[in-house]
Structure formats: C-alpha cells, structure tokens
Amino acid sequence: MFDEKTEKENVYLDVIAVLAKKHGFEWRNVEKLTELLTLLQKDVSDMKSVVEHDLPQQSYTREDLCSILEVTDAEFTMILSENTKNLEEFQLSDRAKHVFEEAARVRKFKSTCERGNKVEELGRLMNESHKSCRDLYECSHPILDELVQTALDAGAVGSRLTGAGYAYHLFF
After folding, report:
1. Which pairing describes strands 60-61 and 169-171: parallel, antiparallel, or unpaired?
2. 8 belongs to a structural domain
3. For 119-167, what is each residue's pLDDT tens digit?
4. What is each CA distance from 11 to 3, 124, 156, in whole angstroms?
5. Which of 10, 126, 155, 164 fits as disulfide partner to 139, beta carbons 3.0 to 4.6 Å?
6. Cα-based angle 74, 33, 96 (whole degrees, multiple of 5)
7. Which GO terms describe its cellular component (predicted)?
C-alpha cells in the first residue's frame, strides 16, 4: 500500500521556497517551516489564509515554480529530492493546507490532552486529521479509509492513519 504521492512531493521545501519568495525573502535561506513562520510573523493557525492568498492555483508546473523562484529548470531540479526530480506538476496548495492545518491540530491535540478527559475532542481532531490526509495530502488508501470507517462504526470516537507513504498504521 505504499503511496507514491507522499514520496513524490517534497511539500515542505517547495511551499517554504514559494511562500518565502512571494513575501520578498531570499527563499534559499529559509529551510524550515519554523523559519518561514518567524519571517512572516505568523502562527500555523494563520497560514491557511496565507496559502489561499499566495497559492491560488490547485497545481503548479515546473515552469510555474521556476518562474516564481526565478531559477532555471536545472537549478530547480537541484532543490528537489531524488524522488521529485522527474515531476512536472506540484499540488502545493492542498499539500500546504494539510501541513499547516495538521500542525495546528497537533497543537490543539496537545492542549486538549493537557486539559484532560476530553476524549470526544481528541476523536474529532483525529477524524479531521484523517480527512485531511485523505483529501488534501492524498496519502491515504481506500483500504485504510474503510478501516477508519469500520472503527468509527464500531464505536471509536476517532480514527486516523499514520505513517503515510511508508508503513501505514491506524489509530483509534
């Protein structure tokens, strides 16, 4: 059940580079999500609106990204992982929404755990996470989706995949 989409797209590097460039920063100096958030003076919970504004297209071609980043195709290829070097199209917007929304969910999950005895809220966050993995990051699989639904139908308050693209697991 290995998912090629997860392996094919290095969303972090692509999204960080494009968003840094669109906000006037030297994108080559921004390697981590936390660095981008600091430069933009944003929290992960603010990034959905940034992504919707700055990445309005559903997909971007290599040519689009080379133009945005002001690099040649050869230079662009150098920043890609080995598994993304042959891609011609990149789904930056959905992938970015997933990454930032998932980071916000992790924070909510942590704070909910610290407050204690909020099982329904934790379940809701797990369900949202699975839906995002399935619909935005496209790293689920129909069999996993069926298992998630089976767990929910059997009474689990939340269920989601983890290990997407590498070794799948299901939590409920």
Report:
1. unpaired
2. no
3. 999 999 999 999 998 998 888 889 989 999 999 999 999 999 887 555 5
4. 15, 25, 31
5. 164
6. 75
7. cytosol
What is the extent of the structural domain holding 33? 15-95
- Torsion 50-53-57-63 (CA) sign: negative
What b/e string do you get for 131-161 counting C-beta neighbours within 10 Å, with b at 16 or more? ebbbebbbbbeeebeebbeebbeeebebbbb
List Cα–Cα distances, 41 to 35, 44, 45, 123, in angstroms.
Answer: 10, 10, 12, 31
Which residues does residue 139 pair with via DSSP β-bridges, in sequence order? none
Structure pTM? 0.79
Query: Among the three residues 95, 127, 154, which one is the final residue of a domain in this structure?
Result: 95
